[in-house]
Structures are given as structure tokens and as C-alpha cells.
Write a structure and sequence with these properties.
heterodimer, A: alpha+beta, Rossmann fold, OB fold (Dihydrolipoamide Acetyltransferase, E2P), six-stranded mixed β-sheet, five-stranded antiparallel β-sheet, elongated, B: MetI-like fold, MetI-like fold, 34 helices
């Protein structure tokens, strides 16, 4: 039991709302102590998945296991999970301390003991001393931390986070997300984290599950997803890639020689055979150079963003999106440029290979 | 989890066992709460519990015992789970079904239907259900609910399932069973045997359906009522719109006090307006005398009849329509009108082409509400109807008068119900989806356009005139109680108040006034009904808003529909349903309380729904994921946040219990007489002075209750600005949705 504590498994879970099928068939395993992100565009079923794990929705078919025990039909209050809500859902009529102690008291703890543990949890998230305040008297970032403390104080097997940062401003978001990650690493609990922000997912996760239309599109470490996207959708969704067409000339020892826009590049073959192929081309994979060198192109539009310049460039690969951090001058639309491709930032896409 | 499943089953089974072994199965005639049955217990059969009755040969109780035994065996032999759940649910439903069947089939003198007697031979009659049977029924309902919970229905939430099951049961017993009984009553003879004679005679009665007034004769009562309702709806909608526009779109100086108008219908017992009108415009009314003296005309009895009722209803219902329409007018986003003005339209064109069309659905809504209110109105027609009444009064006279024709009452009630329900359905089905509510939740800059001058002047004049008339009528009510004999002797006196509310000191405090009896009864019953109404209403609101269960739409619809059932129909149907076994309650305080709870519950539901809609649903979910069950969530999170809504529901149901007359007048008894029924009696005897004095006291009581409530809630708002729930009296919601 102890080594399965915190493990989560979805076995062929399906969920439909009336005639609409949100999730056709989902199977998923999460190891104890792992932080897994469910990532996807809105409507992809990630929140439904999380809510089924919390017991706030019941699956139409399949089984859900937490810590090796089946919980499919258990109501939310009898599952050993707790959740941080997007809106935080702090009870506005209770003080911060009462909010944090709420779950402990529901679990039958004596009020005095509950208060003590709540105070400890608050100091864990750096809010000691704020217990007597009302939630409305705290800043957004503090409220968020109260929500985390309130969920963590129950020492759940799994902590669920539903877009926990979406109500914070960009600067605060970065700090809070590293705090959450740090807490999770230190205490070692399993966490399931829902977000639609790929950068957030890359930053906090051990593993990312990208979902699309209720199915798992790809699952893997942030690095795997970024460097070896399984499909054009993933390539575009994780880190905004251009999807371009090239040709594999030959494959040798797992390395493919790829012809792309007139240049030849060695890339991991990913099991593909010679022929036409699609590639993901990251914005930093093409370097701007003087006209005449590399692949020829014309600037279609440019945007100056301080430390870098974004270009859309028309060329033999169609219109592609390129970032130039060269600090040089900003080229006007219509300017002719050369593009040099680097293998880093390029990946073959195995899906739909022709 | 298995232990919780078992614990609640143990409780239910223990309660059922207690009911079968200890409590009298049948209704104890001298009052269960008098506890006389304990002394009666060993000897008298009437006090025997269910088990003893069954052993003594009442075979209709055997299935109850068998089913409960089966449930007990399941509890002991089977583990909690889907399989046991299914069996328990089946047992629960079977038990409820059997109680209903045997209760309806076997009456006081044996079989209720000849057919059964022919099939099964004679059986001894039985009394109505008593405490034992009622608790057994509740236990069956809970068994079904807990069975479903074990099966995993609704994520296995036993609390929610139990709440839904009990509510459905209660609504079935107290709303639908009486209606069914009423329709059945239409087809019964005095001795209970089936006959369609009464229905046939009444349904084709020219007194009901004649359209002769179109060519100079007099119309049937159904059409008269219908035409009256149309006129009242049109008039009150027009006046309501006038007031709403004046209050929001003009520079009228007394806007704030206009809003006070909206409180009037809440605090005024329905017949009081009619009474005041008589004193003003009746044969010896003060205005009548003034005009007659000035002009020498003979005005006569013009007030008594549809015209008078119409004026009284306009006075009574214009504030309601005002309340609906002020929401509509304020709901129109000013940016729409500003957009129109920037598109080269002047104010008058904007008003015609944008403002009015946007209000159209709201106007239709107000019209339908006015229609339903007018149809259901009982108090004003009773006072002013003269010889030609309307449907609601005619129903009353069909049962209490010399006619004593229940079949006629049932037919008339069915016609009335058909009218109001069609209006309700029209409002629900046709108007929903046509609402141009333009409130978006985004902060809308812009200021509402002032009315064009050519509209502003006339409507301000109309509003001021009508408001003045309303004030005059209410002044009449206050003043009338201090005058010796209205119309004859206008010397001031306190005599009426003393006769009604006298107190003397002979051997301690003595309530010598004639009104005290009904006054205290009214207070007691209203106080008992208010918390029940609020609880049932808010629980229902919570279920409707927060829980997704099958048939939720139908459940909500049925509840709201009960709002369109006129009080008179409720009254007559309660009399017909609860006068005989299996549920006999007439003449008790219980029937009055039940009537108030289920008649006023929709108001609580609407208030609760509105308040709950403002509470973020993730609050409940957060509580659940923190390990608190549904019951605890409701208690610790939802209820504290809804305190203002709860208070509003309490106050409103209290006040409505005091002012209502239409249903009450059928249900009062010598022992439990209510203030309104008593006042109507005074009016019928011509004792206007005391009636008016009593009414003013009631109005004062209600003003202080409502004022106290407003102070309480207002104070709360100052202290905690973020209080999320709506704290207004729920009448607005009652009227608008």
C-alpha cells in the first residue's frame, strides 16, 4: 500500500454529457510523487479529467484508481485528494485560519489541533500570522497561497490544481509557479496540474499530458515533447513551431539526412524512411544572415519586442515565423534576407508521414 | 464508507421499528401531540401500533412488515454495494406504493370502490394514517434514497438523494394529490360513488359559458373573469410602466418614495383595498357623498361589480407590475440608447425604435403576471363582487353557501386552473428565450436617456395622480378605524380598537378584545410556517441550482407551476383531499401550516435560486474536496453565505401567511381561525369599523416586521461590503422570472 500511495490510474475512462462525448476513452498512469500536467486548448477535456479524479464528476464508463484503490463511485468528500480551484474558492465568510482548518475539522480533528496544523500549513506557504484575516483582505497571490495551504494541510495522496495561476498577473505567476514546484519537490506529493499555458507546463512538470478532443495527443517529459513532437498539433502547441515540408534523402544508424529549403541537415530519423516528411521548425532554428547566404527569403512583417525581433518571412518553405535576437537593425517589410537552418530546433514529425 | 452506509440504514430501520412497535398506526382522534394515546395504549384498539394492528388481523399492514423485514435481512446479510442498493431501492418504492394503494383503497367503511368489494369481499374500514404509518412511509422513502446512494446514483451522495426523495414525496402529497382529489371529487356523488352527472350539468352551464354580454345580455362567469383579468392585466401593466419610467427616466422629484409603493401589496391583506374603496366610493362613501352633494346626481351602486373589482385590482397589482418593469427598464443597457442617438435618431425615435421593443418581453411578462394575479384574486371580488362574482368567489360559494355542490366547485376550480396555467405556460414557454435582457455583467458606462418631453409630461401626471389616489385609499384604511359609523356618524372614537384589542386587568392580564383569538392563532401559525417554508424553499433552490439529477427540469417546472395555482383552488383541493382517510387533517393547525408551506415555497425557491446563482459553484466543490459531505457543506458554507436570502424568505413567508385569504378561508376552523378569515367574517356582518381597525393593526405589524428586517440586512451590508447574496425581499424574483 505504502509504495502505491499517491499513484493514480485511469482505466478506459469515458465521460459524456448527454449526447456530447467529452472523453471517449482515456487510460493514464501517474506515479507517486510525480507532478503531471494536463495541457491542452480549452474544451480538450483536461478539466473534466481533473474533476473526475476529484470526484466532482462521475465517469460514464471505466475505472479510476487512487493509491491502488478503486474510487470510481466514491463521492468527492470520501476521496483522499484535495484541490486548488481556479477561483481559489476561499469561503468568504471564514477567516484564513478557518478556511485552512475547515477540511481538518470535517475530518474529525479537534478544533484546537486543527488550528495548530492550519497555522503550520500557513507558515509553510509563507503566510504565518495572517490567520485572523478574511480572504477579501489578502492580495491575489496571498489568496492563492491560502488555497494551496488549505488543500495541502490535509496531506492528500494527490493534490489537484485547476489552472491555479490564471488569476495572477504575469510577474507573480512566474514566482508562484516555482513556489508550487518547490513545495511539491520538498514534500514529495503527487500533483495533477491543469493548464492551457504551455510555458507554465514546461516549467513545472515532471511529465506533460497533452490532450486534444478528449484524447491524449502525446505524453512525456517537457524535453521529449519539445524536441520530439509526435504530431504537428503538438509541435505547434508546445513552443509554437512552424510546420514545414522537407524530404528524407537517406537514413543511416537512426540519423536521417534531410533536405529542407535547399539545405541538407542531419536529424534523428524517429523511425521514418526516405521520402517526403513534415518537420517542426522552431522560431529560433532559422538564423537571419546576409542576403545570398543560405535560403533566400523576403520579410513580410516585423515586430520589435525589445530584446528580440519577430519576423514573418516568405521563402521556399512558405511563410515562416522567425525570431532574431541579433540586436541588429529591424528589417522593414520587403527586405530580402538569407536564412540559415540549424539542426537544433528542427525535428521530424512522425505523424501522417507520406 | 461501508460503515456510513450501514449506520444510516440502521437509523432508518430503527425509526421504522419504533414506529411499528410504539406509535399508533392510525390517526388518533384526540390529537397525537396531546399524548392521550399513551394512556389509551393497552386497551383501546385505536391507539395500537402497527404490529398490534397487523396481529389483530389487519392484513393490509402485513406487506409493510414483510418489506421492512426484508430490508433488515439485507442490512445484516449483504455488504453495502450496488446489488444491495438496488434491492433496497425496490423495497422502498414498493413500501411507499403499497401504503398509497391500501390507504386509498380502504376507507372508513371498508372498500372505497364497489369493484374491489365485489372482487375481494368485505373488509373492515380503517381510520386515516397516524404517526406510525407516516413514519413508516418516510422510512420507506429514505430506504429508497439510501439504496440509490449505494447504487452510486448522483455520485453516491446520500444526503442529496434523501433530500430529493423527501421533497418529491412532499410535493406529490401536498400539491398533486390534492389536485387529483379535486378532479376525482368532481366525478363523485355525495356517497362517494362515481357519477359524471355533476360535471355534465356544470360544464355546459350557461351561467359559466354564456357570451350573451356581447349582444347586451350578461356573460357567463368564466368569460367575466377572463375579461376582468385581461383588463386588469392591461391596466396594471400600463400603470406599472408609467411608474417605472417616471422612477428611472425623468427628473421627477419624489422618485425614492415611489419605490415605497412596491411594499404595499406585500403588507396589505388582499381585501383591504376593496374595503377602503367601499368607504370612498360606495353608496355612502365619502367621495360619493361629496360628488352627489356638489352635482345632485344619484351615483348609486356602480362600484359593486366588475368595475369596482377592476379598480381595486389595479390598486393592488400596479405595484407588482411596477416592480417587474423597473427591473426591465433598468436592465436596458444605456449604451444601446446612446448608440441609437449617435446613429442620428432623436430621443423620441430612440424611445420608439429601441427602448420600447427591448422592453416588449418584459411588458408581456408583467401582463401575464397581472392576468394570473387577477384570476387568483379572492379578497377584492368577495368584498366588491355584489351579486355578480368571479370564478374564485363562485368556487367559495359553491361549497360554503346553500348550494353545497362540490362537483360544481371542482368544475369551476378546473376552469380557473386552466386559465392560470395557460398563462403560466405562455409565460414560461413563449417568453423564455425571448428575453432581451441586456445586462452583460460588464461595467456599462453611459447614462440612461431621459424620456422625450412629450412622453415625460403626461406620464408624470398619470403617476402623480394614481399615487395620490393610492395614498388616499390607504389613508382611508387608517382613518376608518377611528370613525364611529362610516358615512353616517363621523365623530372620532377608539371604540373599534377597544372592542378588537381590549385588555383588562381582572385577576391578571385578560385579552378581552374579540380579535385577540384569531390574532394569536395567526401569529403562531405564521411563525410555525415561516421557517418550514424557508427551509423547504431554500433546500429546493440548492438542489435545483447545484445538483444535476435526472428530471431536474421537470422537478423545477412542477414546483414553479404550483405558483400559478390560485389560492382558492388550493383551498378547495385541500378540503377535498384531506377531509377523509388516508390523510385527514382538516380542522387542524397542520393543514394551515402545510398550505402555507407549499403555497409560499416557490417564493423561497426563487429567492434562493437568485441568491445561490451569485455564489461561485467552486465554493461547494472546494468544501467537498476538503472532505466535508453535502450536509456539512450546506450547513457550514452555503447557509452562512445566504443569510440575507434566508432572512428574506423567513420574513416574506411570515408576512404572506398573515395576509393570505383565498386558500385559508376554506381551511380555518373554530379552533384555528386566522385573522384574515375573521376580518372577512366581520365585513360580511357589516362591522366595517372593527374590520378596518383590525386590518390597520395587521398592516402595522407587518410594516414593523419588514422594517426591522430591512434595518437588520442594511446594517449587515454596511459592515461587510462583500456580502454576496441578494438581500432584497424576494417578491421581485417571484414576479420577474
Amino acid at each position: 500500500m505504502s509504495q502505491t500511495r499517491g499513484a493514480v490510474e485511469f482505466r478506459n475512462v469515458a465521460k459524456s454529457f448527454g449526447a456530447f462525448t467529452a472523453i471517449p476513452d482515456l487510460s493514464l498512469k501517474i506515479a507517486p510523487g510525480e507532478l503531471v500536467t494536463l495541457l491542452g486548448p480549452s474544451g480538450c477535456g483536461k478539466t473534466t479529467t481533473l474533476r473526475m479524479l476529484a470526484g466532482l464528476e462521475s465517469p460514464s464508463a471505466g475505472k479510476i484508481l487512487i493509491g491502488g484503490r478503486e474510487v470510481t463511485r466514491l463521492p468527492a468528500d470520501r476521496r483522499d485528494v484535495s484541490m486548488v480551484f481556479q477561483s481559489y474558492a476561499l469561503f468568504p465568510h471564514m477567516t484564513v485560519a478557518q478556511n485552512v482548518a475547515y477540511g481538518l475539522e470535517a475530518g474529525g480533528l479537534k478544533p484546537a489541533e486543527a488550528r495548530e496544523r492550519a497555522e503550520a500549513a500557513l507558515s509553510l506557504v509563507g503566510l504565518s500570522g495572517l490567520g485572523p484575516r478574511l480572504p477579501a483582505e489578502l492580495s491575489g497571490g496571498q489568496q492563492q497561497r491560502v488555497a494551496v495551504a488549505r488543500a495541502l494541510v490535509l496531506e492528500p495522496q494527490v493534490l489537484l490544481l485547476d489552472e491555479p495561476l490564471s488569476n495572477l498577473d504575469a510577474r507573480l505567476r512566474r514566482r508562484v509557479r516555482s513556489e508550487i514546484r518547490e513545495l511539491q519537490q520538498r514534500l514529495g506529493f503527487t500533483a495533477v496540474y491543469v493548464t492551457h499555458d504551455q510555458e507554465e507546463a514546461l516549467a513545472v512538470s515532471d511529465r506533460i499530458v497533452v490532450m486534444k478532443e478528449g484524447r491524449v495527443a502525446q505524453m512525456g517529459s517537457p524535453r521529449e515533447l519539445y524536441d520530439a513532437p509526435a504530431s504537428a498539433f503538438i509541435a505547434d502547441f508546445i513552443g509554437e513551431a512552424n510546420v514545414v515540408e522537407g524530404r528524407i534523402l537517406a537514413v543511416e544508424n537512426g540519423t536521417a539526412e534531410v533536405e529542407l529549403g535547399g539545405q541538407r541537415l542531419p536529424l534523428p530519423s524517429r523511425g521514418l524512411t526516405p521520402g517526403r516528411v513534415r518537420l517542426s521548425l522552431r522560431a529560433n532554428a532559422a538564423r537571419l544572415c546576409a542576403e545570398g547566404a543560405g535560403m533566400a527569403g523576403t520579410v513580410a512583417s516585423s515586430a520589435y519586442l525589445g530584446d528580440h525581433v519577430e519576423y514573418e518571412i516568405d521563402g521556399p518553405l512558405g511563410r515562416i515565423f522567425v525570431v532574431d535576437d541579433g540586436g541588429g537593425t529591424v528589417l522593414p517589410p520587403g527586405a530580402a534576407v538569407g536564412l540559415e537552418l540549424r539542426p537544433r530546433g528542427l525535428a521530424l514529425i512522425p505523424e501522417g508521414a507520406a | 464508507m461501508a460503515s456510513t452506509d450501514n449506520r444510516r440504514l440502521d437509523l432508518v430501520l430503527a425509526a421504522a421499528a419504533g414506529a411499528l412497535l410504539l406509535l399508533p398506526w392510525y390517526r388518533y382522534r384526540y390529537g397525537f401531540f396531546g399524548f392521550g394515546w399513551i394512556g389509551d395504549l393497552p386497551g383501546a384498539e385505536r391507539a395500537w401500533p402497527g404490529l398490534a394492528q397487523a396481529l389483530a388481523g389487519r392484513w393490509q399492514i402485513w406487506p409493510v412488515l414483510a418489506l421492512l423485514a426484508a430490508a433488515l435481512i439485507l442490512r445484516l446479510m449483504r455488504p453495502a454495494g450496488a446489488e444491495r442498493g438496488r434491492a433496497l431501492a425496490a423495497i422502498g418504492l414498493a413500501g411507499l406504493g403499497w401504503l398509497a394503494v391500501e390507504g386509498l383503497a380502504i376507507g372508513l367503511r371498508g372498500w372505497n370502490w364497489e369493484l374491489l368489494a365485489a372482487l375481494f369481499g368485505e373488509v373492515p374500514g380503517q381510520q386515516a394514517f397516524g404517526a406510525g404509518a407516516v413514519i413508516a412511509g418516510l422510512a420507506f422513502a429514505l430506504l429508497a434514497a439510501f439504496g440509490w446512494a449505494e447504487k452510486g446514483v448522483l455520485k453516491g451522495d446520500a444526503f442529496v438523494l434523501a433530500a430529493i426523495t423527501l421533497l418529491v414525496l412532499l410535493v406529490a402529497v401536498f400539491v398533486f394529490y390534492p389536485l387529483a382529489a379535486m378532479f376525482a371529487g368532481a366525478f363523485q356523488d355525495f356517497d362517494g360513488s362515481f357519477t359524471a352527472e355533476g360535471v355534465r350539468r356544470n360544464i355546459a352551464d350557461p351561467k359559466i359559458w354564456s357570451l350573451a354580454c356581447l349582444w347586451g345580455g350578461s356573460c357567463g362567469i368564466a368569460w367575466r373573469t377572463f375579461f376582468l383579468a385581461l383588463s386588469t392585466a392591461a391596466g396594471s401593466t400600463f400603470l406599472g410602466l408609467v411608474f417605472a419610467l417616471v422612477a428611472t427616466r425623468t427628473g421627477f422629484r419624489f422618485k425614492k418614495s415611489l419605490r415605497l409603493l412596491t411594499v404595499l401589496p406585500i403588507i396589505t391583506p388582499p381585501f383591504v383595498v376593496g374595503l377602503a374603496l367601499t368607504m370612498l366610493l360606495g353608496r355612502s362613501g365619502s367621495l360619493t357623498q361629496l360628488i352627489e352633494a356638489a352635482t345632485g346626481w344619484e351615483l348609486g351602486r356602480w362600484l359593486y361589480g366588475l368595475t369596482g373589482i377592476w379598480i381595486a385590482q389595479l390598486l393592488s397589482f400596479t405595484p407588482i407590475s411596477f416592480l417587474v418593469l423597473i427591473g426591465v427598464v433598468e436592465g436596458i443597457s444605456p449604451s444601446m440608447e446612446e448608440a441609437s442617438q449617435t446613429l442620428r435618431s432623436d430621443r423620441w425615435r430612440t424611445f420608439r425604435k429601441v427602448t420600447l421593443p427591448l422592453m416588449a418581453p418584459g411588458l408581456a411578462n408583467a401582463f401575464l403576471i397581472g392576468f394570473i394575479e387577477s384570476m387568483a384574486d379572492f379578497g377584492n371580488p368577495l368584498v366588491l363582487g355584489g351579486s355578480g362574482g368571479v370564478l374564485s368567489t363562485e368556487i367559495f360559494f359553491a361549497v360554503v353557501g346553500a348550494q353545497n355542490d362540490p362537483a360544481r366547485a371542482a368544475v369551476l376550480a378546473a376552469i380557473l386552473l386552466a386559465f392560470t396555467l395557460s398563462a403560466f405556460l405562455a409565460q414560461r414557454l413563449w417568453l423564455s428565450g425571448r428575453n432581451f435582457a441586456t445586462v452583460t455583467g460588464k461595467g456599462d458606462g453611459g447614462r440612461a436617456a431621459r424620456l422625450p418631453r412629450r412622453v415625460a409630461w403626461p406620464i408624470s401626471a398619470i403617476a402623480a395622480g394614481w399615487a395620490g389616489f393610492t395614498l388616499l385609499v390607504y389613508a382611508m384604511i387608517l382613518f376608518g378605524g377611528f370613525v364611529k359609523v362610516w358615512g353616517l356618524d363621523h365623530s372620532l372614537t377608539l371604540e373599534h380598537y377597544i372592542r378588537a384589542f381590549g385588555i383588562s386587568w381582572q385577576d391578571g392580564l385578560r385579552w378581552t378584545g374579540v380579535a385577540w383569538d384569531s390574532f394569536w392563532t395567526t401569529m403562531q401559525i405564521a411563525l410555525a410556517a415561516a421557517p418550514l417554508t424557508a427551509a423547504v424553499g431554500l433546500l429546493t433552490a440548492w438542489l435545483i441550482v447545484r445538483q444535476r439529477f435526472r428530471f431536474r427540469g421537470a422537478f423545477e417546472f412542477a414546483l414553479m407551476m404550483s405558483f400559478a395555482i390560485p389560492g382558492t383552488v388550493i383551498g378547495i383541493s385541500y378540503v377535498m383531499a384531506f377531509n377523509l382517510p388516508p390523510l385527514q387533517m382538516t380542522g387542524s393547525a397542520l393543514i394551515l401550516i402545510a398550505c402555507f408551506v407549499f403555497r409560499n415555497m416557490p417564493v423561497g425557491v426563487r429567492g434562493g435560486v437568485a441568491a445561490m446563482a451569485q455564489l461561485d459553484g467552486s465554493l461547494d466543490e472546494a468544501s467537498l474536496t476538503l472532505g466535508a459531505g453535502s450536509g456539512r457543506t450546506l450547513r457550514r458554507v452555503i447557509l452562512p453565505l445566504m443569510r440575507p436570502a434566508i432572512l428574506a424568505a423567513l420574513v416574506y413567508s411570515f408576512v404572506r401567511a398573515i395576509t393570505s385569504i383565498s386558500a385559508v378561508i376554506f381551511l380555518v376552523s373554530a379552533k384555528y381561525n386566522m385573522a384574515t378569515a375573521y376580518i372577512v367574517g366581520l365585513v360580511e356582518n357589516g362591522e366595517y369599523g372593527i374590520a378596518i381597525a383590525y386590518s390597520s393593526v395587521l398592516i402595522l405589524v407587518m410594516i414593523s416586521v419588514i422594517g426591522g428586517f430591512q434595518l437588520l440586512v442594511g446594517e449587515r451590508r454596511l459592515r461587510r461590503r462583500e456580502t454576496p447574496a441578494a438581500a432584497t425581499l424576494p417578491l421581485a424574483k417571484e414576479a420577474t422570472s
